[in-house]
Amino acid sequence: MEHENKKASKVRRDIGCRIGRVREKRGLTQSALASLIGESPRTITHWENATRDIRTEGLIALSKALGVSADYILGLTDVETPNQTIQAIHKETGLSEAAVEALISVNYYFDTGSWKMLAFISDLITAPGGLWEAISNNAGRYVTLSRKSPLTSEEYDKMLVSLFACQEFMKEFVKGLNWEEK
């Protein structure tokens, strides 16, 4: 029991340190932060001094007000914002930021067991009458209208290449999965 209390207080201290560090980095006083999130300055002091646990509502409000992820406040990551995570993965792998965001979304669906949603997305892109077919069948029409379209022909080509890559990825992806809910 005593070990659990020490562990809990260490977690609270870590959370408090992160709140205080980010608050100061943003140039906010405890009173200013309290006003932003609808809490009393005393509550902010309790959180930063690790004398009181933070409620879920408070965590969400802090995350929004300070512009950091809740995972960062809780010490689950050292990356302050999800955008920094995307940029770090982009830099490390060479994948576009859009591709990284897509993979993070796919990972979310895996983690939450939302197999039906992934199947729906796959069908939307690859099924007969799906997105890919609609764009492919109307390609000539889009090119002819390109003078009136906000897309340049280069942007249109990039869009088609991206959609083709997405279609191929989804086809391979679908082959390797059993879409039944577990």
From TrEMBL:
Q: Which SMART domains match?
A: HTH_XRE
Which ranges of the sequence are coiled-coil? none
Q: Where is the HTH cro/C1-type domain?
A: 19-73
- MF term (GO), any: DNA binding
Q: Quote the Gene3D superfamilies the UniProt record gives.
A: lambda repressor-like DNA-binding domains
Which keywords accompany this UniProt record? DNA-binding
**What is the name of this protein?**
Transcriptional regulator with XRE-family HTH domain
Q: Which organism is it from?
A: Intestinimonas butyriciproducens
